[in-house]
């Protein structure tokens, strides 16, 4: 459900003194899976190819965005669009994009249940060297059973809490491998004997994660530099941002907060809304239901939730529509009210729409001379 501002929220926003859009990091969630992020047969259908993603990353850099990120996905959701039926692998793709760019940060995704921390330590040291210090790691606790059971790598006996204990140990081992000449470790899940991973990265890659569970937030507060957050509305998003930052502060750390947003833009508000309506009309209900079932929902419940508002469900994330001026204003509202440090943006057509956003919205969000966060 897209975040909305009531009149009282707008009033509070003007008095909040929160993060300004000019100081915000803006990034792009790359379409590493076929179909991108809109699950619809009437929306543009980005290709899961390196060439398509390379052009999107180069455009992001050209127009002053700060990072590009790709997900890890191992199985699609079928339906009329075969949504995410074709995907690339995140780490190797981002290594290519690190070579294709010079400034924009490149953040790749790792599932901790697929990649051993010693292998990951070496891979990201290499990515960091290719990127010249721009690499980041999105740490994901694998939770969708079919993605991993197809490989024989799903342990159904591990609870949600168990998977976070696994990931906590995984990350601690990773960080030791990046800083110590040799690691001996005899833990609950990992056992290392004089394990070496040299060279160490000259600069520790940025660590980011998502998740709103208690275990997820505690993990982020202890290990991560960035937290990707979701909520039902703007007050909930601001509360989430405050929460994880307070948790990190108690650990003697700081953490930046981000959220995701789909941008549907046209010359006028009316044209943009008509565009969004057209995309929503083609919602691939079968793929959306399959996606929810993968989260663990019973099929009947997944269907009823999708059927309530399929035209909105097709977008997966909150969205804004409008002219360039309206889109810029809505982004300012979201960033300011929720007190976020960054937004990761999604576009229907990553080539045409990203270029249009860069030409017409970025100058409104980041006036000449204004810089983004670290």
From TrEMBL:
Domain Luciferase-like stretches: 25-335
Pfam families registered for this protein in UniProt: Bac_luciferase
Single GO biological process annotation from the record: alkanesulfonate catabolic process
Keywords on record: Flavoprotein, FMN, Monooxygenase, Oxidoreductase
Lineage: Bacteria, Bacillati, Actinomycetota, Actinomycetes, Streptosporangiales
Keyword Oxidoreductase: yes
Location of region: Disordered: 1-20
Entry GO MF terms: alkanesulfonate monooxygenase activity
Gene3D superfamilies membership: Luciferase-like domain
Domain of life, source organism: Bacteria
InterPro entries hit by this protein: Luciferase-like_dom (IPR011251), Luciferase-like_sf (IPR036661), SsuD_RutA_monooxygenase (IPR050172)
Keyword Oxidoreductase found: yes
Name under which the protein is recorded: Pyrimidine oxygenase
